[in-house]
Amino acid sequence: MNQRPLKIALIDPYYQGHHCLYALQLVRELVLAGHRVYALGHPHFVEALKDYSERVFEIELKPSVKGLDILAKRQFLLKSFSICQDLPLDIVHLLYLDRFITPLYFAKHKTLSFKRVCATLHWGYFLPQFLEGSVRRGYGGLEHLLLKRLIQDGLIIMTHSHSLIKSLAQPRLSYVPYPAEAESHPKTLNLREQLKLKTQDKLLLAFGGTRYDKGVDLAIKALAGLDDDIHLLIAGKAEDFDAATLTTLIQQHQLETRVHLHLNFIPDAQTPSYFEAADAVLLPYRHIFAGQSGPLTLAAVYERPVISSDSPMLKESIEAFKLGESFPSENISEMQRAIKQVLKGNYQRTADFSGFRISHSPANFARAVMRSYLLS
After folding, report:
1. Helix H or strand E segment including 159
2. Cβ within 8 Å of residue 20, ≥6 positions away
3. Residue 69 and residue 42: Cα distance in Å, rounded?
4. Where does residue 326 rank: exposed (0-12), middle (13-18), buried (19+ CB within 10 A)?
5. Strand partners, 310
6. Which of 39, 78, 113, 200 has a CA-to-CA distance to 352 between 20 and 30 Å?
7. What are the DSSP E strand ranges found in 252-315?
8. What is the pLDDT of residues 122-144, one digit of tens each?
9. Which backbone phi and psi does 11 adopt, to 5 degrees?
10. Plot region of 41 (φ>0 → left; ψ -120 to 50 → alpha; else → beta)
11. pLDDT for 44-91, tens place per residue?
């Protein structure tokens, strides 16, 4: 990063999950390289970045009635861009373009005075291969068209997936590695002891919220056909699958002693304990899953092999760094095969965990972002 110092606005309306840590890893590297950062977004988001920012601006995305969220998102963008117009900026960077394509298109007149506007697209959720039903495909096609128009108007897009870039087939797209560095926290839990696991027992970890597309129900069904010494820990916020639904499914398959539910948001301080307790990380995602996986990145950080469905954005990393095994999405028997293969293998020796961590280090992430900023 030998460019002249830049003045950069980072904008994110959200703070949950990975949002704050993702931005924090970027802003630290930008400031270390001499650039000046302004943070705009949710109060918790800007609070996380304030020690590294020239100034912070709290802007909340207002709750809206279902169907009117486009208007609320557009209003958030208009407020953000209005503040940015009064700042001496070189770059305006929307850290989370997902579900904001349409609002951005209808707020783009406010971006015309900025030298460069960039946005990070994490998911290919609008592409037809990830959608079910004609209505969703129709709206996805509209979003894809609006994204093309935004790119034609000068928007620079960053994404964390080579396969997504290939699917979009547009100019002004650039790949940036997803940052793979966990915050340093002391081990706070002995989960294997808590779960009363025997030394020979194997523990699969399904980490993150229980959205439908993440397929935790499929993982439970797969476990029913595996040896009794294989356990499954589902850890993360209850979403589409709540405790009652999962408990019923567990009882139907007589897995009460082998499936363990920790259905709450897992704070960063406890995350290392979950991955260190696991023998492997399971990503049983459905074919409609269209994005990156934080648990895959954490698995590489904590050197745990990955068993994943063959979502293109996951498979490319697993194959490139030999992180584990993939299987056809929603195929229970193939998921069972992959689990057996990983649990009897020696991935601590064959996987290139260190190569993944180097390639996806915060420093390399920030360098790639800077290269994207300077695209003409």
Report:
1. strand 156-159
2. 44, 45, 48, 49
3. 16
4. buried
5. none
6. 200
7. 259-262, 280-283, 306-309
8. 998 888 888 888 888 888 899 99
9. -125, 130
10. left
11. 999 999 999 999 999 999 887 666 799 999 999 999 999 999 999 999
Could you tell me the CA-to-CA distances from 166 to 151, 160, 170, 173, 280 in Å, in that order?
15, 12, 8, 10, 30
Q: How far apart are CA 368 and CA 268, in angstroms?
A: 26
Q: What is the DSSP string of 79-112?
A: HHHHHHHTS--SEEEES--TT-HHHHHTTGGGGT
Among candidate residues 193, 260, 191, 192, the one with its CA nearest the CA of residue 220: 260
Residues sharing a CB contact under 8 Å with residue 264, sequence separation 6 or more, in sequence order: 236, 237, 238
pLDDT band at residue 14 under the 50/70/90 scheme:
very high
Contact between 370 and 1 under an 8 Å Cβ cutoff? The reply is: yes
Q: Residue for token digits 């940052």? A: 179
One-letter amino acid identity for 338?
A: A
- Single-letter code of the amino acid located at 362: P
- For residues 197 and 231, is the Cβ–Cβ distance under 8 A? yes
193's tokens? 């002891």
**Cα-based torsion angle of the residue sequence 35, 20, 372, 97 in order, rounded to the nearest 10 degrees:** -140
Mind giving me the DSSP string for 191-257? HHHHTT--TT-EEEEEES---GGG-HHHHHHHHTTS-TTEEEEEES---SS-HHHHHHHHHHTT-TT
Q: 272, 243 in Cβ contact below 8 A? A: no
**DSSP bridge pairs for 308:** 283, 326
Confidence category of residue 274, pLDDT binned at 50, 70, 90: very high
Residue with tokens 């001496």: 88
Distance CA 305, CA 356 (A): 12
Between CA 21 and CA 271 the distance in angstroms is: 13
Question: Where do we find the tokens 């995602």?
Answer: 285
Place of tokens 């649990």: 343
